[in-house]
Write a structure and sequence with these properties.
- The structure holds 2 protein chains of 2 kinds.
- Chain A is of the alpha+beta class.
- Chain A folds into 3 domains: about 5-105, Beta-grasp domain (Ubiquitin-like (UB roll)); about 110-240, Fumarate Reductase Iron-sulfur Protein, Chain B, domain 2 (Orthogonal Bundle), CATH 1.10.1060; about 260-290.
- Chain A contains 11 helices and 7 strands.
- In chain A, the strands form 2 sheets. In chain A, strands 2-1-5-3-4 form a 5-stranded mixed β-sheet. In chain A, strands 6-7 form a two-stranded antiparallel sheet.
- Chain A starts with a strand and ends with a helix.
- Chain B has one domain (about 25-155): Fumarate reductase/succinate dehydrogenase, transmembrane subunit (3 helical TM bundles of succinate and fumarate reductases, Up-down Bundle).
- Chain B contains 5 helices and no strands.
- In chain B, helix 2 crosses helix 4 (about 75-105) and helix 4 (about 75-105) packs antiparallel against helix 5.
- The chains are: A alpha+beta, B mainly alpha.
- The interface between A and B is large, with 54 and 43 residues.
Chain lengths: ~290, ~160
């Protein structure tokens, strides 16, 4: 690859042994299309092997490489260095999360808050169907579009880092958890609307949001948590005015005619040992033939 | 040596942005600046309210005391301060109306398919038109206040 220019990486590293930050500067030759994550890998391979950062998929799917680049939370793998139009990049670990080492942060509080809003489909009275699902729920494409945008979340914690409310209120659920609550409320298969509204209806829940819009600005997948939180408030108002009482989830799909027949057909007994035996027989025949 | 290293506690920090994090950094979206100004003007108005109560409570100690306080606050510099307070009040009120409308889900529309380029609802036409309308109303109110305050000293 042809080097276009040299870019300085100013990395604000957390030193866990000393309990303070240290700023290290590295010079990285940048080629066209190089991402910030590739720059970090270059530093780790060639300049400083002690540099710690998280990465996995390097294609904006796993959402673990979130760092703050020039003051803005971004995914390192989805940000091209040349697109930033800057000769000096300032890299910091994500804010509002406990620091571990260098650019690595602990996502535990973030995931705990997500768990609080029960991020799964709740069906009342359908315990057996919940644990041993036999058939799917019916859902029209229009009903899917109600929540599709919110289901694209990577749980990368960029919105959590960008939000000014999480920065001052450690109990605030955060944009991601509230957005996820709305994602399940808007899902037509779900019946847990009233349970979830009780969880988010508090100053630490969706009333803590002050519409700074930073979460939507930071989101790398266009999920728009700011919209979801406002729609969540609308649901609470509707509940308080008495428009919503109980929600009936989407019905189960009718049993298909061939399912019962298929149960009667026994699966073929095909084991590894049996296969080896068969291969041996065939091989022996093959050897005997000439 | 090895044991000592294993026993050593590694330090951590929650790394909260705190109150200074309201402004965050300089490449923020429009609503974040408005959020910051809304908070600052809110705090400023509370401070002004305390000052206002102190000034008006001087009436409790008789008319002569109140006349004395009045003579202190009646000067052009105090009126410039009053103009700034009024500007903060107008911003806080006008932005508050915008927030009430948007925070209850009005003018925001429905979620869309997440197709690139992604759409942010706050950057779409209707919330931005509402913001523009509020800016126009705010400027008109500010001009009225400025004119009224100017009348006292010009005429």
């Amino acid at each position: 690859m042809e080097t276009v220019k040299n870019v300085k990486f100013r990395i604000k590293r957390w030193i866990p042994e000393e309990g303070r930050f240290r700023v290290d500067t590295f010079e990285v030759p940048v080629f066209k299309g190089m991402t910030v994550l590739e720059g970090l890998i270059y530093i780790k391979e060639n300049l400083d092997p002690s540099l710690a950062f998280r990465r996995s998929c390097r294609m904006a799917t796993c959402g673990i490489c979130g760092i703050i680049i020039n003051g803005k939370p971004m995914l390192a793998c989805a940000t091209q260095i040349l697109h930033l139009n800057s000769d000096v990049l300032t890299l910091e670990p994500l804010k509002n999360l406990p620091l571990v080492k260098d650019l690595v942060v602990d996502h535990t509080p973030f995931f705990e808050k997500q768990r609080e809003i029960k991020p799964y489909i709740i069906r009342e009275g359908g315990e057996e169907e919940y644990w041993n699902p036999s058939r799917e729920y019916l859902q029209t494409p229009e009903e899917v579009e109600e929540y599709l945008q919110f289901s694209y979340c990577l749980t990368c914690a960029l919105c959590y880092s960008a939000c000014p409310i999480t920065g001052t209120n450690p109990n605030y659920l955060g944009p991601q958890a509230l957005m996820n609550a709305y994602r399940f409320i808007a899902d037509s298969r779900d019946e847990g609307l009233l349970i979830r509204l009780d969880i988010v209806d508090s100053p630490d829940g969706c009333w803590g949001c002050h519409l700074a819009g930073s979460c939507s600005d930071a989101c790398p997948k266009g999920v728009d948590p700011a919209l979801a939180i406002q729609l969540l408030r609308r649901k609470i108002i509707e509940r308080d005015l008495g428009y919503i009482k109980a929600v009936k989830g989407a019905p189960l799909a009718p049993p298909l005619p061939y399912v019962e027949e298929a149960k009667e057909v026994k699966p073929p007994k095909f084991t590894v040992r049996g296969a080896q035996k068969k291969i041996k027989e065939i091989m022996e025949k093959f050897v005997e033939q000439p | 040596m090895g044991f000592a290293k294993r026993d050593r506690k590694y330090k951590t920090r929650n790394n909260m942005t705190g109150t200074l994090g309201w402004i965050g950094h300089l490449r923020m979206n429009m609503e974040r600046y408005l959020f910051f100004l809304h908070r600052v003007t809110g705090i400023g108005l509370v401070a002004y309210l305390i000052l206002h109560i102190i000034v008006t409570s001087s009436r409790m100690y008789g008319e002569s005391t109140y006349r004395l306080t009045e003579s202190v606050i009646k000067n052009p510099y105090a009126d410039i301060g009053l103009f700034i307070v009024m500007a903060g009040l107008i911003f806080h009120g006008v932005n508050g109306i915008r927030l009430i409308l948007n925070e209850y889900g009005f003018l925001l529309g429905k979620p869309t398919k997440p197709v690139y380029p992604y759409r942010e609802v706050l950057k779409t036409r209707r919330p931005r038109l509402l913001l523009l309308l509020m800016i126009v109303i705010g400027i008109i109110l500010l001009l009225i206040v400025g004119y009224e305050l100017l009348l006292v000293w010009v005429i």
